[in-house]
Amino acid sequence: MKLLQILIDGFAISSLYGLGAIGFTLIFGVSGVLNLSHGSIMVTAAIAAWVIAGDLGLGPYGGAAGGVAMAVALSLLTYMLVVRPIQTSSRIAREEKEIFVLTGTLLWGIMIQEAIAYLFTSNPKTVRPLIPGVIEILGVRTPMQEILTAVISWVVIGLLWLLVNRTKAGKVLLAASINPRGLTLLGFELPQIYFWVWALYGLLAGIAGLLLGAFLGVSSDNVGQLTASAFSIVVLGGLGSVTGSLIGAYVVGYLETITAYSGGPSIRTIPVLLLLVLVVYIRPQGLLGRR
Amino acid sequence: MTNRKSFAAIAAVLFALALLPFGVSGYVLGLLTLGFYTAVFAMSWDLLFGFAGEVNFGPSFLIGIGAYTAALLNHYEHWPIWACVVTGGAASIVAGLVLAVPALRLSGPYFGLVTLVAVLMLQNIIVLFAGITGGEIGLDLPDVLSIDDSNNYWIALTFMGISGAILFGLSRSAVGLILQASGQDAMQAAALGFNVTKHKLAAFCISALFSGLSGAMLIFYEGTVSVGTVVDIAVGVQVIIAAVLGGRRTILGAALGAIFLIGAGELLRPLGEASTFVVSAIALVTILFVPGGFLGALLHGEKR
């Protein structure tokens, strides 16, 4: 019974983690950027959905659409206002771009977090679920929203797989991650590709944030934790590897769920941190990393 | 000549700062005292990042170890303050070595992540053993440095002056140059016959020592230790922002940035929750348009 509960809860939470981390790893794989404003983009999607569905009275579907649109817009802003200027700046030495992008996106994330806290307070908010109700799976009462979370996560991940592996646009993305210079020689505009990658990333992070908001509720205080967990999952799985990130998400999701059920929620993240340190020392490139 | 000029300028600034208690209120002194300790955090961080090129996301791990070691010794064993501070600094070096020896095998984002995880672990451990450490509420200390604002201010200023002189001197020495070379091109530095790992390890120890000492001094100034003031990720973020804002690879710029951040945070306090937003925005605009930071811009202007 408890085992089944852990299996179901762990699966839903892991799928959500996977969806959240997959965008993070995509941006790193294609453009080499670790986006530390990741958590704030997820939270923005959820809070926007909450405001649009509730205060503006557009219902859960209107809220969901609005929230995801906000996330895409914010992601593109992140790229154009923060990441792009640093990448093209001639005053920043090449070997220092990485730390500047990290610091820049970190500051940007803090700004978004504070703006949300200022406008809508930092109280936790729960987005109204798309499908309300509870069903029983072999005796375990499970909210419909939890099942929906897992289903939507996997549908979106599946669609992303199709996009990357079965379409021309996806091949361009892959090429950009393997050899950007070669792609430029073939006449593709890298900035244009990056623009679309950031839009795609916003879409993924937005959906993940929305589902999180409906499943567990979010507050602007969660921003740092969300970014850190995406970062951990991605490093665990191997930076830039999508399959690795998904495996990492399940390892983290289940480890946290098992710890929370057996040892209590207060030590939930400790085994994950220990595992992370262990993996980074023994196998720095992660489970399926490329370098 | 420029060297002598800037030396004279720094001496003049320090002298003016030392006279401040005769002219301004205790409130301003308290603010600057906090600024001076933060300045030492930022300078230590700059030595590690600006010179050794190691992205340490967890300065508050080293600060927190020093602070909590000192706090526990004072609270439970009633050691005198100076012994607690020295032991705190030593504990930070040990913690720095534990972190650095394996972590220096890693590079870039991986090293950054390990340092970040170290902070989260420390925070978890402190909260988990709340019975001993006071958890999130914190721990009161029986002793304080001084109850007089001016004395506290002078102690902090002296501490910052000495730490700054040592860190700055180190960065301008042969060791500093080797560190800088290792940070920019480790392979070439090694090819020239320098032991890159040994130098980076030394940088880590020195950075840890001053972070720990400053953390321990800070809590004896405040009379209490808590996760929020010496361990939280936000503390580390503030240190990093201060160093980048003031100008990396300058040591002194980091101090400038730290004092500016503490001051700006206080000036903007009337804005309430929006103040962090404004400070972050200023920092973001600075790194986008003046990537060299305050001091970088100043020195650059002078060169022309």
Cα Rg of chain A: 19 Å
CATH architecture group name of chain B: Orthogonal Bundle
* Poorly predicted ranges of chain B: none
Number of strands of chain B: 2
Oligomeric state of shown chains: heterodimer
Biggest sheet character of chain A: 2 strands, antiparallel
Structural class of chain A: mainly alpha
What does this protein structure show overall?
Chain A is mainly α. Chain A has a domain at 22-221. Helices cover 75% and strands 3% of the residues of chain A. Chain A has helices at 2-31, 38-54, 59-88, 97-120, 144-166, 168-178, 180-185, 190-215, 223-237, 242-263, 270-282, and strands at 134-137, 140-143. A two-stranded antiparallel ribbon of chain A has the order 1-2. In chain A, strand 1 and strand 2 (140-143) form a beta hairpin. In chain A, helix 2 crosses helix 9 and helix 3 (59-88) runs antiparallel to helix 4. Chain A is globular, with a radius of gyration of 19 Å. Chain B has a single domain, classed as ABC transporter involved in vitamin B12 uptake, BtuC, CATH 1.10.3470. In chain B, helix 2 (26-51) crosses helix 12 (233-246). Chain B is globular, with a radius of gyration of 19 Å. In chain B, strands 1-2 form a two-stranded antiparallel sheet. Chain B is mostly helical and 304 residues long. The model of chain B has no long low-confidence stretch (mean pLDDT 85). The longest helix of chain B has 27 residues, at 196-222. Chain B has 15 helices and two strands. At the A-B interface, helix 3, helix 4, helix 9 and helix 11 of A face helix 5, helix 12 and helix 14 of B.
